[in-house]
Amino acid sequence: MPYVLVLNASYEPLGVVTMRRALVLVLDKKAVSLEDSGVYMHSATSALAAPSVVRLTRFVRVPFRGPVPLTRRALFARDGGRCVYCGGVATSVDHVVPRSRGGQHQWDNVVAACRRCNHVKADRHLADLGWRMKRPPAPPSGLAWRIIGTGHRDPRWRPYLEPYGSREEVSHVAPDVPPREAPAEQLSA
């Protein structure tokens, strides 16, 4: 089932919910639909356009948010799905300073790598191989990473995420292409 971006009353991105949950928020008048997904949800007597982006009608105070959780999906989003060593398609996670040599499983030590580079590097330091990275790994910051890290993507979300993350970061959610036309799927509620 497609996912929907949820914005606070101040247009701050809060999270991602299922389409069904977003529709319930809209029907209960707890949220307003800002963008339609092109999908229609049917009941016994009516058909409603399902939202792609909703904004809550009341401001929700968000408690302190800690650092962005280190997940495989968020890591691949940060590195653009590319190997940081050769630029190929990343399929694995690599520790820059190997864990066997005291490296930690933290944002500034973990990168996306292709299988070949990960195998060649094994448990050695980059200096041992003479390799260099294009940019050092760093923890992502900004509210947009709460959404980017989920791995759910929709080009209609981009204008709502750009104020909360760099253009490069938000491009992982929706590349610089015009939004595609959503098929008029018929989903039963």
From TrEMBL:
Keyword Transmembrane helix: no
Region (Disordered): 167-189
Molecular function via GO: endonuclease activity
Domain HNH nuclease: 70-119
Nuclease among keywords: yes
A Pfam family recorded for this sequence: HNH_5
Keywords: Endonuclease, Hydrolase, Nuclease
Highest taxon above the source species: Bacteria
Protein name: HNH endonuclease
Source organism: Streptacidiphilus cavernicola
